[in-house]
Amino acid sequence: MGRRGKLGDRGSRHDDAYKRAKDQGYASRAVFKLEEIDKRFKLLQPGRRVLDLGCWPGSWMQYAAGRVGEEGFVLGLDLAKVELDLPPFAQAFVGDVFEIEPAEVTAKFGDFDVLISDMAPKTTGDKTTDMFRSEELTRRALTFATTVLRPGGHFCAKVFTGGGFKALLADVKASFSECKPVHPKDTRSGSYEQYIVARGLKANARVPGTPPVDPSP
Ligand SMILES: C[S@@+](CC[C@H](N)C(=O)[O-])C[C@H]1O[C@@H](n2cnc3c(N)ncnc32)[C@H](O)[C@@H]1O
Q: Of 108, 121, 120, which is closest to residue 148 (Cα–Cα)?
């Protein structure tokens, strides 16, 4: 098959994903990327506690809530407010990951089994800037992971692959037992996004959460 045919296939898969997401009541077609990764790497299971960074408009939270069920918990965080009706065991908060300390999250909500991050910067059109900002977000997600995840916990984070990708992958590899870059099939044609999926946070990679200082005298 020629190049045009391949791109055409990816383009129609993309439209199809949009329709399927709408039909199934998901807030975004991004859900199918998480579904594909989850089926392959078995990240989400009933009862698991999940932190979702960059959760707006909310399709990953919807999917994760469906997988973990009412014995589990899904906490979402994004610059934008999620407007969906979510079950009581799924809560979304507005916030900037660079302004919130991971230890504040564990102090309030306890440890997590899985951290998923679909965070993406507002694209500027300048590839180098966008990749750099995306890598910064992924590094921040890794910092969160090493604090909020229990030993043995799992990680999945989007990154626009640029010059710092190899170093980033190496840093994730150092903290987890298994680590793989993944390019889901519902990714837009021409996109340079990938997901870093890692299983099994090493106990010695975990930074224990510091409880916040009690302001009372
Ligand atoms: C591709 S969207 C996420 C889609 C989501 N996974 C879903 O399924 O609906 C990327 C999100 O990352 C968020 N984001 C970017 N920078 C952030 C930051 N510093 N803190 C929190 N969220 C951020 C954006 O606001 C945006 O909503």
A: 108
Which mutation among 62, 79, 82, 158 tests ligand 1's pocket best, with the greatest number of atoms within 8 A of CB? 79
158 is catalytic: yes
Q: Which two tokens stand for residue 80?
A: 């934008």
Q: What CATH number does residue 70 fall under?
A: 3.40.50.150
Residue 212 lies in a domain: no
* 216 in any annotated domain: no
Ligand 1: atom nearest CA of 140 is 19
What is the count of structural domains for the chain?
1
Which tens digit of pLDDT belongs to each residue from 83-100?
Answer: 999 999 999 999 999 999
Note the pTM of the prediction, 2 decimals: 0.91
Return the ∠ at Cα 96 (arms to 190 and 182), rounded to 5°.
30
Catalytic residue among 122, 158, 180, 202: 158
